[in-house]
Write a structure and sequence with these properties.
By secondary structure, the chain is α+β, with helices and mostly antiparallel strands. It has a single domain, classed as Protein of unknown function DUF1054 (BirA Bifunctional Protein, domain 2, 2-Layer Sandwich), CATH 3.30.930. The protein contains six helices and seven strands, in the order ααββββααββαβα. A seven-stranded antiparallel beta sheet has the order 1-2-3-4-7-5-6. The longest helix is centred in the N-terminal third of the chain and has 31 residues. 35% of the residues are buried.
Length: 206
């Protein structure tokens, strides 16, 4: 059972050196990702109607710079997740993110954006005001949904459609000091609820 995240997990990202930080990620964080993923795959399979598979970030392309974040991804393709709509849970040094993610590798992102733009009212209503939206999974920053109106969302989706490297991720940020992170059951409940809330966007992306 997932025990929750600890201060030491977040301190992983202050370790110098690619090998040293990767070793800490593999020992401290990835076993937790596997525990989280096992639960979420079953839950998301039931809710989505697709069999879902766990992918844990390997950071295999890195040769010099250690990763600033790490994550798990869940999608319907056993071989890979980057080209598909997927769900993520991951850590930076100061927060945990829980995303429904559409990243730039998705070959049909124009079609997905059109689906969302054609159903803009529904998309806007689906996303709770305490969620956040990111336009680049490499960056920590995200936009608070409570500060956005429908034209803002429309502009984000137009950018996602028209700019090759543009992305669209929506979900929650949980501060590293939030006590919910140290309570595995509460965190899993929050994560499941977040992903189920975003399931209409997942289904609309096909």
């Amino acid at each position: 059972m997932f025990p929750g995240f600890t201060k030491k997990d977040f301190e992983t990202f202050s370790i110098d050196g690619l090998e040293e930080r990767m070793s800490a990620i593999q020992k401290r964080i990835q076993p937790k990702f596997r525990e989280i993923g096992e639960v979420l795959c079953g839950d998301l399979s039931a809710v989505s109607g697709n069999e879902m598979f766990l992918h844990v970030a390997k950071h295999a392309r890195r040769t010099v710079n250690p990763p600033k974040d790490t994550w798990l991804a869940i999608c319907h393709d056993k071989r890979g997740y980057k080209k598909h709509p997927h769900f993520q849970v991951g850590l930076f040094d100061d927060h945990v993110f829980v995303w429904f993610a559409l990243i730039y590798e998705a070959p049909n992102k124009k079609q997905i954006a059109e689906n969302y733009l054609n159903n803009l009212d529904e998309v806007f209503e689906t996303i709770p005001k305490d969620f956040v939206i990111s336009l680049d999974h490499m960056k920590k920053e995200a936009y608070a949904v409570k500060d956005l109106d429908k034209p803002d969302l429309e502009n984000m989706l137009l950018r996602f459609r028209d700019v090759k490297k543009a992305e669209f991720l929506v979900g929650r940020h949980v501060d590293a000091n939030d006590p919910i992170l140290s309570d595995g059951n509460r965190f899993m409940a929050l994560t499941k609820e977040t992903m189920q809330t975003l399931m209409p966007l997942y289904k609309m992306s096909f």
